[in-house]
Design a protein that fits this description.
single chain, alpha/beta, Signal recognition particle alu RNA binding heterodimer, srp9/1, Rossmann fold, five-stranded mixed β-sheet, 20 helices, 18 strands, about 45% helix, about 15% strand, extended
């Protein structure tokens, strides 16, 4: 039975009673005029000087008024005798006497009565909430915050792309929820829990809803942070309520998103330290998952991008039996995801989603959805009726690097530096044997970069040593081109150095690609789905040797690409000059420039050219911008 909340009349009456008592007490206890406190000697002096006009005696307390109208009060050591009172009368002072009062009617009777009334009303409200057992109100904080979808979601496996292996593995869960008797007859125990692991935005929640939609069962969803509260025991109570709700709605799926918020390793020695409330909540979750009988038809699914911090007891068989990895999709998966999100969007005839999928390696489902949405916004802003391939290319650049800074003021010298910098990246990418090809070059500022060279990336599962060395060389080629042309260096290679140094260090410490250090893992990378951090396993002496090896490896690759750019001086000049003229080159245009052909189609670069304002160097003030690949 749902608890009825107190009507608004109860609250208005309560507020009126408290306000009235407070106002009356203030009116009767607050004096209308300011009363000055006089000590006994000053009071005696004022009486003898004839400055006192009226006196009111209440035992030891004496109140009065001076000739100038000021009110005062004083405290006598003993109540005044008859002789003292007669002396005051003889001096012409109006004297009155009244019995000493212990307190006003309102402070002695009505205020305690109001306090008792308030407590009674609050107790009545609390006990009513406890009896009603509703999800809201004072006692509702022990109720689960999970949202229940009594009807199965409309999402199905047809709406999920790029995770074919995960769908195959989860198909067993769907079959069990559809016909559990078939499994029970064989004495089989279906996995009680399924842990979905993958980077943010890869579609873990989406595929969990698809499982419920395929099985046509209720979907109960909660977040790991919904359980942990400031008060110890509240999270455990919410876990109990969640599982009670699930049993009433069986067969069903419980989905806990970001379970690492409640499922971290216990003991205080792991990530984040100890927390009594979180640990009690985790203990209750472990108990509830263990308490399922063999023939239960409640499946628990959870998602996390930090599996390395989860408590081992949560991952043992009988709790989360299965771990399903949902990684970033490959090129075929990205194309399928793009086609799903492109439904309902008018696409022009020149749109090639397969080409767009090839140029977006590493993108997850959320990135691809955002890309199509950005393209739709660009087309609508330009008042086009359909989304063109140009909109999709611009949206991809916007998602990866940020919007073009069309109002940015840049000097001609900075444009030349950026053009030669990006030309160096492009030539190294094209001529190094194991590097990727060139997809696009531009000197249009985006984000923190004054320009960038976008390689034609491919999905690679195994990175060879030669490929990694060429990748380091490509990163260093921008600085090498600057030094060759201008006999000086700039700050534009900051991000290039960071990429090259990270690759070189990992080649030595993680991948065993240096002859001096051998096949030893000197460090390991934790929390890989969120960027990762390194845990060292080597001494200070080894750290010094690693630093020297990293420096030598990077210097060797720098000399290699510098020699390449010196040998390709004519191509370098042509690419840089065309970039200064057009600001953006596609892969096809870049190849034509290398071959010495003239570019006749000027319309394709019309939108990019003029994106920045070119002014003489003397008019520019401030720090240099950041360039780089």
């Amino acid at each position: 039975m749902k608890r009825q909340r107190p009507g608004i009349g109860i609250w208005l009456l309560l507020i009126f009673v408290i306000g009235a008592v407070w106002a009356l007490n203030v009116a009767y206890t607050t004096p209308a005029e300011t009363i000055t406190q006089l000590n006994y000697s000053t009071f005696t002096s004022e009486v003898q000087a004839g400055h006192v006009r009226q006196l009111v005696v209440e035992g030891h307390h004496v109140y009065g008024r001076l000739e100038d109208g000021r009110r005062f009060s004083t405290y006598l050591p003993t109540p005044p005798s008859d002789t003292t009172l007669n002396d005051w009368v003889r001096r012409g002072i109006e004297v009155r006497a009244r019995p000493e009062q212990s307190g006003s009617l309102f402070t002695s009777i009505l205020l305690p009565l109001a306090a008792v009334l308030l407590l009674v009303l609050l107790f009545w409200y609390f006990t009513r909430g406890a009896r009603g057992g509703g999800d809201s109100g004072t006692f509702g904080f022990t109720k689960s915050r999970a949202r229940i979808l009594p009807e199965a979601p409309k999402t199905s496996f047809k709406d999920v792309a790029g995770a074919e292996e995960a769908k195959e593995e989860l198909g067993e869960i769907v079959e069990f929820l559809k016909s559990p008797e078939r499994f029970h007859r064989m004495g089989a125990r279906i996995p009680r829990g399924v842990l979905l692991v993958g980077p943010p935005g890869s579609g873990k929640t989406h595929i969990a809803r698809a499982v419920a939609g395929e099985a046509r069962v209720p979907f109960i969803t909660a977040s790991g942070s919904d359980f942990v509260e400031m008060f110890v025991g509240v999270g455990a109570a919410r876990v109990r309520d969640l599982f009670e709700t699930a049993k009433k709605n069986a067969p069903c799926i419980i989905f806990i998103d970001e379970i690492d918020a409640v499922g971290r390793k216990r003991g205080g020695g792991g990530m984040g330290g100890g927390n009594d409330e979180r640990e009690q909540t985790l203990n209750q979750l472990l108990v509830e998952m263990d308490g399922f009988d063999k023939e239960t038809s409640v499946i628990i699914m959870a998602a996390t991008n930090r599996p390395d911090v989860l408590d081992p007891a949560l991952l043992r068989p009988g709790r989360f039996d299965r771990q399903v990895s949902i990684d970033a999709p490959d090129v075929r998966g990205r194309e399928q995801i793009l086609r799903i999100h492109a439904k309902g969007k008018p696409l022009a005839e020149d749109v090639d989603l397969a080409l767009l999928a090839r140029r977006t390696p590493g993108f997850v489902g959320a990135d691809l959805e955002n890309l199509l949405n950005e393209a739709a916004l660009l087309a609508a802003r330009a008042r086009r009726r359909k989304i063109t391939m140009k909109d999709l290319e611009e949206a991809a650049d916007r998602v990866m690097m940020g919007p073009a800074k069309k109002s940015m003021v840049i000097t001609e010298e900075d444009r030349r530096i950026t053009a030669y910098h990006e030309a160096g990246h492009a030539l190294a990418t094209h001529y190094l044997e194991h590097a990727d090809g060139v997809h696009k070059i531009t000197i249009t500022p985006r984000g923190r970069a004054l320009g960038f060279m976008m390689p034609d990336r491919q999905d690679v599962l195994h990175w060879t040593k030669k490929r990694l060395l060429d990748k380091i060389g490509v990163a260093l080629a921008g600085r090498a081109a600057e030094e060759l042309i201008f006999d000086d260096v700039t700050t534009g290679a900051e991000n290039d150095f960071r990429q090259a140094t990270e690759l070189a260090r990992r080649m030595i410490t993680e991948w065993g690609m240096h002859p001096e250090f051998g096949q030893v893992a000197y460090q390991e990378r934790q929390d890989a789905y969120l960027g990762g951090y390194e845990v060292r396993h080597y001494s200070e002496d080894t750290a010094r040797r690693i630093d020297l090896a990293v420096k030598d490896l990077i210097s060797e690759q720098y000399e290699r690409v510098a020699a390449l750019l010196r040998d390709r001086r004519a191509e370098r000049e042509r690419v840089a000059e065309v970039l200064l003229e057009r600001e953006t080159l596609t892969a096809e245009q870049f190849l034509r420039v290398l071959q010495g052909e003239e570019l006749e189609d000027e319309e394709e670069a019309a939108d990019e050219r003029g994106a920045t304002q070119v002014i003489p160097k003397a008019k520019v003030r401030g720090e240099p911008g950041l360039g780089g690949a």
